[in-house]
Amino acid sequence: MGADTFTPNVNGSARFSERLASGLAARGHDVHVVAPAASRRHGTWTETYDGQDITVHRLRSFRWYPHDWLRWAEPWFINKNSDRILDDVKPDAVHFQSHIIVGRGLSIAAKKRGVRIIGTNHFMPENLLEFTLLPKSWQVRAVGMAWRAAKRTFGRADVVTTPTQKAADFLEKYTGLSGVLAISCGIDAENYTPDFTPREGNHILFVGRITGEKQIDVLIKAVALLPADLNAKLDIVGGGDLLKNLEHQVKVMDIEDRVSFTGYVTEEELRASYTRATVFAMPSIAELQSIATMEAMASGLPVVAANAMALPHLVKDGRNGFLFEPGNSQQMADQLEFILRLPQEELDAFKKQSLELIEAHDLQRTIVTFERLYRGASDVDDAAIDAELNAETRAALGSQPDTVPGGADPSHP
DSSP characters for 86-134? Predict the structure, then answer.
């Protein structure tokens, strides 16, 4: 697996790569990850995620200082490093998560060796443009160059995927590729805890990177518009380059008592934040899926989200939340107020809808789908995937010892 961003980075692509790698390892695969080093220390060693050992090849990297944490592998050595790693590992398949540097090198090396290649796109130019330091007049040209580079790298793949159909249509439109498969990033819903007890306060939650495309300023303005009697509190979980700007905005608007910035938190603290919240807010305009929104739904939260990119795939207006016009703080505030004023029974109906809708994004289904692609499949065969998952469930149940009440011998009639 190749990734330009991987744990300890905190973003959707890194989280997906980690979960897929550990999930594949749990199913018995020997998983290797190629990614930039998270510090000056580089080399190959074992890292453990979700209790699974993964071999990680950390490439020498450098900080990209316009960004608050991003590191990049040396592009002038990526072909040499990719050749070396593939000759050593001799993989059955290569799955890259980004075309920018690591995916480019691995796809070239894999193509030369006849190794099956899967490419997954998590990239939108809006996610990086603000960190390029390019003047506005050059940005349109830069976007065109980025998509041409994506076409070259993804064009080497045997199968190209992206998390949603909206994202697949987007990728095909800007690269000219065809046949891009929509495969959810998936989520292990059992890791999250819904809470149906009566609310203690009105808690609004945002989780994500504190960057421009997330449009957190729109959410802050919406919170400022909420009636005072709601006593609504906004928790913003995550870090990023705009943190100080947003803290200043909150101070200028004199709503410091309503908004808290937690920065990065542990996985346990994050899950507790989801459980404690009343509603999840996602104002972003550049989500190819939004793992944070999926985590919120798995925690039984209604969602108020921008009607942009892939968010409508998760948020069904009037069922598990509402979609608002991107950038429209007043409309977002109205929808947040509607949910926060719901009687408990009606709020619970929204919460149950989120839990029901997230079932289609089961992580094990995602892992089995990619396994089939690694082995040679070129499509998403739902019937075959269902059959395999059902067979595994039956096998797991069959391997459990029989028990009978009272501790009697189950082999005795």
Answer: HHHH--SEEEES-TTTHHHHHHHHHHHHT-EEEEE----THHHHTTS--
What pLDDT is recorded for position 403?
46
pLDDT of residue 145: 80
Give the separation between CA 406 and CA 146, rounded to whole angstroms: 67
Residue-level pLDDT at 401: 53
Sheet holding 43-49, edge to edge: 32-36, 52-59, 43-49
Distance CA 174, CA 259 (A): 38
Instruction: Over range 80-99, report the average pLDDT.
Output: 97
Q: Is 42 exposed, middle or buried (0-12, 13-18, 19+ CB in 10 A)?
A: middle
How far is residue 210's CA from residue 139's CA, in Å, rounded to a whole number?
21
The CA R_g of the chain, rounded to the nearest whole Å, is 23
Is the pLDDT reported for residue 64 higher than 90? no
Q: Where in the chain is the domain with CATH 3.40.50.2000?
A: 12-182, 189-360
- Yes or no: domain 189-360 corresponds to CATH 3.40.50.2000: yes
Please give the pLDDT value at position 129: 53
- Judged against a pLDDT cut of 80, whether residue 170 lies above it is answered with yes
Among 337, 67, 375, 347, smallest CA distance to 222 is for: 337
- Check: CB of residue 85 under 8 Å from CB of residue 34: yes
Sign of CA dihedral 34, 37, 41, 46: negative
CATH of 12-182, one of 3.60.40.10, 3.40.50.2300, 3.40.50.2000, 3.30.1360.40: 3.40.50.2000
Residue with tokens 């890259």: 96
Report how far apart, in Å, the C-alpha atoms of 50 and of each of 22, 176, 272, 349 are: 6, 38, 18, 32
